[in-house]
Amino acid sequence: MSRKNRFVFEPIPEAALSRSISPEAYQALDGALFDPRLVDLGDAEKVIRPSTTYWHEVWQRFRRDPLAILGLAVIAVMSVACIFVPMFSPYTYSGMDLAHMNAFPTWQHLCGTDQMGRDLFVRIMYGARISISIGLIAAAINFVIGVLYGGISGYVGGKTDMVLMRIVDILISLPSMLYTVLIMLVLGSSEFSVIVALCFTSWIGTARVVRSEVMYLKHAEYVLAARLSGAKLWDILVTHLIPNAMGPIIVSTAFLIPNAIFTEAFLSFLGIGIQAPMASWGTLANDARSTLLTYPYQMIFPVMAICVTMFSFNFIGDGLRDALDPRLKK
Amino acid sequence: MAKYILKRLFAGLLTIVVLITIAFFLMHAMPGNPFSQGEQKKLTAEALEKLKAKYGLDKPVWEQYLIYWEGLLRFDFGNSFKKPDTTANEIIFEHFPTSAKVGGIAVLVSLLVGVPLGIAAALNRGRGMDWFCMVFATVGISAPVFVISVLLMYLFCGVFPVLPNFGLNDWKSYILPVSCLAFNPIAYIARQIRSSMLEAMEQDYVRTARAKGVSEFWVVTKHAMKNAIMPVITYLGPLVAGLLTGSFIVERLFSISGIGRYFVQSISDRDYTMIMGITIFFGVFVVICNLVVDVLMAVIDPRVKLSEK
Amino acid sequence: MGRLLEVKNLTTNFHIGVGCVQAVRSVSFYLDQGESLGVVGESGSGKSVTMLSVMGLLPGYAEIKADAIRFDGKDMLNISPSEFRKIRGGDIGMIFQDPMTSLNPLYTVENQLTEPLRIHRGMSKAEARLAALNLLKRVEIPDPEQRLKQYPHEFSGGMRQRVMIAMAVACQPKLVIADEPTTALDVTIQAQVLDLLDQLKKTTSTSTIMITHDLGVIASMCKRILVMYGGLVVEQGTAREIFYQPKHPYTWGLLHSIPRINQQKGEKLIPINGTPPDMLRPPKGCPFAPRCRYAMPVCQKYLAPETVLSGTHAVCCHLMHEKAPKVERQV
What we know:
heterotrimer, B: mainly alpha, C: Rossmann fold
């Protein structure tokens, strides 16, 4: 009898069960079975798995995550498209075709045209260039700042660490949007100022991750060895600590990209980011605000582009996180 | 406990001072001046000087900073440049209640929908409810607020014209803005509670409770849930901040005359006092919310007070 | 039959994604009123899972099968969940291994200590509080008035374990199961807690089951002993029988590996070489065979049936077979 359970269990395969024996058969067993000298030692050596490097294993795990691969594929396609489509398209991002304003999507204009007859598909591709490049540049800069700040804070420790972390605490206790908006005001609206605004507080997450990793790793023996052989702070950080902390750093940086894309689109949508006639996805959405109910495609296509890109980067980030530290998987 | 609150209060005040200082100096680093916008472009140099003197803009920056502080301590944010006969205070307090209503309802909805969703997912792990929840949560977390807003607006005002997309006239017009604001938080809260519930249910103290003969209902509600809800309370701080920034978009899209929309407007107008005033207001608001959250956490979890750095 | 607890042929399997972990494979034992039973074995031998199966405290993916589990005459396999809940805490109390995590950090000790009293004995808050105070006094926690209002993190490890003990005996259960109660504690505290358990046992004549991997603890506290390995009971008997006339090579190994006070200087400890078996893919025959000095071909093919040596002593070893060589235990 077994206790009632709401799960239904599969029976254990016969091959997995250990063998017991009936009393009669037991008595009748052959004497040779009881000779200790005849024990079959068998293949005591376990099968040794082929050794792989850490990064190879990470890649293997990443490959098995369908969403992450999908994200990677989408980004790859989009990157290629945004480079080549404007080159081969008969339309430019500012070329106006006044005869075909507000046209619905057709084979000629894959996403329709906007209020001034500009082809939306090409504009979206240009927008992709801007958004993706801003995302990558901002993430790269935040990566550098975050790693250095967190690395120094974690490694040096003591008062320096306390002061640096206090500064971070104060900065982060307010919504980053506030800073972003204020900085945009001061620097005017251009791609450069958007990147600066994006870099004002986004590095903090990475810095914290790096700091905790470094604080944990700096007690390792190879660090002590490096210090004893006279290596300087910079060398220790760059050669030893940071490469070993790469896992969580990569994950936190990976999530910076969709965040940057979102913030840029957000700013442009509010009118304080990239300005017309430049076409970032946010500006396209902003331009189409008034016509949402009449020509919905003008807003929906750019918005979907933002959405798909952010999803893809988020999936990649999730995949990286699961691949780098499988323990975190539920 | 009192010491804990005081510490937090002090940190908050420090933050606000830093914010005001940063904002102030940023404003003064701006190119142009507030009078070169709009109709006032046609001023002569002389008139410009007079205006500047009137608003105290010809004094050295440090003095202006101190004067501003003086005003702040009297709760006077100064007059709006765009509408010089109204003070920033009036405008803020006129528009804030609208945003507060929408935002407040959004917070309630986030909690009332997100928490049960996450708990249902955790208790039904691996089955239909859980799966549905997790898909929803993943989508909800990644989709930025204006994607959601645009899609919802298109669906419910365009395709199925059942809800208004303009203003806040009747109860129906609250549905869309609140949903747009709450979408993200619901997803986040559900996912968070699900994972902390799952973790709490595996803990030893849950096993001890069962060994004592506590009924399953109380094991879940009394023992597991209180532990699981901690990360959600921590999230309340960023939640408020998120609703704040979300309101910029939602109010703009749905033409709600709340303070978020006004902020964006002031930026276009280069109305510096307004920008400063609203920024400081936001800052103070967020700091107060964080303080409330910290106190709440200390009340629920007795370990918090002791684990100060 | 008069036995307080009777378990026949208990098997517990955990169905996890990669396969099925056979944590407990056909374990049978009994416990009389007022008796103390010790269960000794390595980590992974199935001793904790056995007791958790009896108590019904395993997660949903655990499949529990048995010919019979009877407690105080009741059939525990077919009992309703609400009946079961009454028994847990009310008639059977359990003490867990790690006092740091076994108490809920968000509730006061008073709250957690009075919980079983309010549930099983229907006491009011005030009555329960009084009872809780007395319990704390019994487990020798100083200043109990103050302590009741405190939270678990304000207690030391040894104190927390005393609170756990108090919780387990709160409703004066017929049976107390202690799952490695001292493993997570400092050695000096261990002795105190064990003394406390011993004292409680003597003053209330509760039946106890003590699970441990420490033979020293068992020797002083338990009348009968179960030796478990690889999900099976390899030997069981009274303490005298196990310590003075052990018959299973694993028991010999355990006894040899204890340091003795009268050991000669330079005399080595004899550990048991090898590692415990992987219960996801348990070996086909006797689980101890890979590590056993006396292993024979039959040990790799079949599980050993039980050989009854006396009214209380039984062992599962192929060495008991008439065709097996006679082996003398090495001193």
